[in-house]
Amino acid sequence: MRQFWCLSALCVCLCACVRQHVPVQFDRSDPLALDPEIQWAVVTEPYAACYADAGYDAAVVAHFRKGEILRVVGERLVSSDGTGTVWYAFADGWMPQGAVAVYANKMRAQTAVKELGVR
Fold it and tell me: pTM here?
């Protein structure tokens, strides 16, 4: 019995020492996904309006649905009646902070979409 355990331990040690060459694969389909200078937003409202400028007085130029991922291109603090609201700029226009959740990279935004359960 002792020989069995010694032989088993020897096999485990030898198998653990065998080096396996597995090449590392990088996903280059979206080079901006992990760029630290770019933020990504996930729409959190069921149906959110996108405005021509930061503020509710601007014209609505687009609409987005819950779970859509957008690249943030700017932000602005808009003060009205003593309260300040952060507005985020996207390629299609502006949306208030309450309609989106902002993430440091696209992969975190994609994970957030999965957790929302919309797709």
Answer: 0.72
